[in-house]
Amino acid sequence: MVAPGDAVRAGDVVVILEAMKMEHEIRSPAAGRVRDRLFAEGETVNEGELLLVLEAVAAGSAATPPLSGPGSASASATPRPDLQRVLDRHALTLDAARPDAVTKRHALGLRTARENITDLCDDDSFVEYGALAVAAQRSRRSDDDLQRNTPADGMVTGLARVNGALFPAERAQVAVLAYDATVLAGTQGFRNHQKTDRLLGIALKHKLPVVLFAEGGGGRPGDTDMPIVAGLHVPTFASFARLNGQVPVVGIVAGRCFAGNAALLGCCDVIIATADSNIGMGGPAMVEGGGLGVFRPEEIGPAPVQHGNGVIDLLVADEAEAVDAARRYLSYFQGCVDAFEAPDAQALRSVVPENRLRVYDSRAALQGLVDAGSLLELRTGFGIGIHTALGRIAGRPVGLLANNPLHLGGAIDADAADKAARFLQLCNAHGLPVVSLVDTPGFMVGPAIEAQAQVRHVSRMFIAAAHLRVPLFGVVLRKGYGLGAMAMVAGGFHAPEFTVSWPSGEFGGMGLEGAVRLGYRKELQALPEGPQRDALFDSLVQKKYEEGEAMNMAATLEIDAVIDPAATRAWLLRGLESARTAPPSGACSVDAW
Fold it and tell me: Is the pTM of this model over 0.85?
């Protein structure tokens, strides 16, 4: 407290009152000098009693010393001891505190978890949760050891903005989780499971997209601070799976991703992986422990294998490309963009060859429909009979399907059907309209394909389409035959918002040659084998082709129009402007496969 004769400035603390074990500062209302203090230290005062008598003096006079209180510049220039302790503690979580670990990481050609997060997120937008966690190993390690060597318990979590330059702040919010491979090999510890669950709960509550950097070795056996036996009550996997169909979930892998880390990765909508990564449900130790042999990590789930079998959706060269792909992928679910460059519409006229038997690359049609530079193909190594991609039409995000005539003539096999059905689920869950480009002779048939459960696999396309709440637009490029063509347009030619055909379109109930052999068996068998029977067969097939021309289909209203290929984008844009996405009638889901 001040004493009689002391000079004070306006705002200086002159008396401290204690009430309910809390101290309350009484500050001088003006500059002056203390003339009298009416209570001694420790005495009890009552409400309304006079405490001090001040004599007013001119502000800035020699009688009033410079102000140096909590709000002054001199007081805030240096952090208080309590703040400094916090700053020092947080510094231990950063890469700069662990130069040796960072150097080893870089020597592998890889980035740290924090470097990846910095690259993904908009500048200064990342807000970290749980930074001060350490491994649950206090019974076997010192606090200093844990703080220096197990920062954040090997899992960096937080909220940030991604693509904030393109979308409003509320659309750019993303939850980010990154296992830190420089901390206990990126394993899943007790504390980082808690951190993961905390952030996943926030993401689900506020419907935030999630990005997971999943590199790591799975469950950690070395955490000893809690009485557990098997540790199988961990809620993280169920928490992560609950995001399915609710928000976009992106998984990124560089290096090795095994066991529990891979289980979370497998729950993601899209998996982006580097060419030298490895993904497996068990690492070398688990494989060997199961009596399954001794393998190097590089032999388990290498990226080329996982890309070819459909595990990896986007195969990239390195982490920088992976992060860029994640930003691009997220953007399709964040909204429309204003700036775009339209492709050359006239180029679509030459996509399909005049020779109806000549194959072509239907990806040229995809490129010719979407805004320049906006096409992002998914799962390119798997189910190559159907292309699946994201893109934009006049800035509007869409999903795109296209049969691939370069594979089985465009016939739909089991892998292609699985790929297409899951893609429809993805678009449906997150509200993307679908554009389907049709050129298929139908579902693949024969003893070999039936041995792959073809009946079940192709039927997934009908089931997925039956649950669509998003508009679907059908464009027949050439062949539109049988059940396969119907599956490509959500179950039937009147199921889409519109079904149109290019002039090259041809239609039929099944393969026309087979239909002629079956439908005209008696007529054909009535003629001897040889030129006469062959001539009748050819004429009947030609007649079927003529009957199934696109204009005949439009004349009988089986399709809505035959259009100039150059007008396709305009048709799609009008459709996108008029069609509506219905709200979910129930829980949407996206199959892991």
Answer: yes
